[in-house]
Amino acid sequence: MGKLTRTYEVIAPVKPLPKTAPVIVSLAGLRATVASEITRDQFTPYAAAGMAEIVYPVGLGESWNAIGCCGYASAHKVDDLGFMKALVAKLDPGHTRHIFLVGYSNGARLAYRVACTTPGLFNAYGMVKGGPMVDCAVSKPTSIIQVASLDDPEVSYSQPGKGREPLPVTTVVGRLHKALKCGAPASVIHPGNMYAWTTWTNCASGNRLALAVWKDGKHSFPRPPASVPGAAPVMWSFFTKRGLAPLP
To answer: DSSP for 145-211?
Structure first.
């Protein structure tokens, strides 16, 4: 990465994973350490159960450069897009594994930047309470799940001009629905205390789109006991195309 040495942490089972086991790359929120993100997103049980490898890239200044946001990484024009490309090449040089990118808040903004510029880099994307920056528009086929809460004060669910994101979630997903050429929803369910979990499985080139919304939770990462089910099993279900199940 030029003059910068970039680092990441890997959480993997003691026993070797099957070659078909996926990798989840998780991008932390602003001013969050890897340790705090591990506690927050609850993906590590999938590694402990021998189901996946979880990778936590380390952001410079505990931030990510999504172009226009946020913190140290944006101010210093850190090449986080290049970091993501180099990381994928390191994790899966033969392109034989499914690798999914999840981002929370500032991490979601970088995940959108990747999806807007290099959508095929990851097999699917999970954006948790963060949206694309102004000049970022997904235009090529990919699979995305957007996670939101009705009461999020930073990422408005449906009201333009509210919160810190340029667009409300409903507008972002509406644009994704059009850009990915999706049809009618394949399912709309309401598990636990979710407001709605809508999935489109008929998008262009076999891709999928989903919107998972909790009734409350503000700007936190959805997880029990406040949010049931948590965002981790919801995204795992979307990524792996398996039914919703509790954390292992």
So the answer is: EEEEETT-SSB-SS-TT-BSSSS-HHHHHHHHHHHTT--S-SEEE--TTEEEEEEE---GGG--EEE
Q: In the Cβ-directed half-sphere of 153, how many Cα atoms lie within 13 Å?
A: 0
CB 190 within 8 A of CB 197: yes
Question: What's the pLDDT tens digit per position in 158-200?
Answer: 998 888 888 999 999 999 999 999 999 999 999 999 999 999 9
Phi and psi torsions of 157, nearest 5°: -75, -45
Average pLDDT over residues 213-238: 97
- Residue 92 confidence (pLDDT) above 50: yes
Beta-bridge partner residues of 210: 145, 199
| 26 neighbors 55 (Cβ within 8 angstroms) | yes
Number of Cβ within a 10 Å radius of residue 120: 10
Determine the Cα–Cα distance for residues 71 and 86; give it in Å rounded to an integer: 22
Structure tokens given for 204: 């262009």
Helices and strands per DSSP (H, E), number in the chain:
7, 9
